[in-house]
Predict the structure.
Amino acid sequence: MEYIEHSESITGYRVKVMPRGAFTVKGYTLIVAPQADALIPAFWREVEADGRLARLRSASLVSPWVLVLGSWDPECPRQGQRYTICIEETGQTDFRRLAGEHSLFSKEIGASSWMIFEMTQQRYETDFWKDNPYQMMKKLGYRFHAGDLSVGLHFDAYPPDFDAARNPAMAFWITVAKSDIRRDAVHGAAR
């Protein structure tokens, strides 16, 4: 996996694209109605404070990336989202101890290419959405991989050594496909 040449000068972020096979994530979820994003920080604090985040991490024999899944499925209201704090299910994870205390949401993620933007947590919170990842991926020759609920999604990704004070490096992973400039131009003109 290599960085996209000149990605930092084009977007302001170091960016790479990584093809990945299908995988599954499990964690704690919240369905968020449109315009109710203010519930998300409280949910994160609750999952951290009551020990669920620590127990979720301990379900893996190796220190996992904590992934925050932003997705949509038929349980979500129109224009709403599912917000899930999760880890990848691997041969190194065992979720049986967690099954009785809180229900876990499981999501199968389809094979796709992932665009990975690297940044600090502060930059994510202050600049990233203003910089518009969808426009940035377009500048890099990609488009959002939509149309399939197993891959039309993104993760806020926190590495195993993430610490908000000492090591605030994180990433934003989003499913992408190479742009077909002619097709995208036709669809863009039709809008």
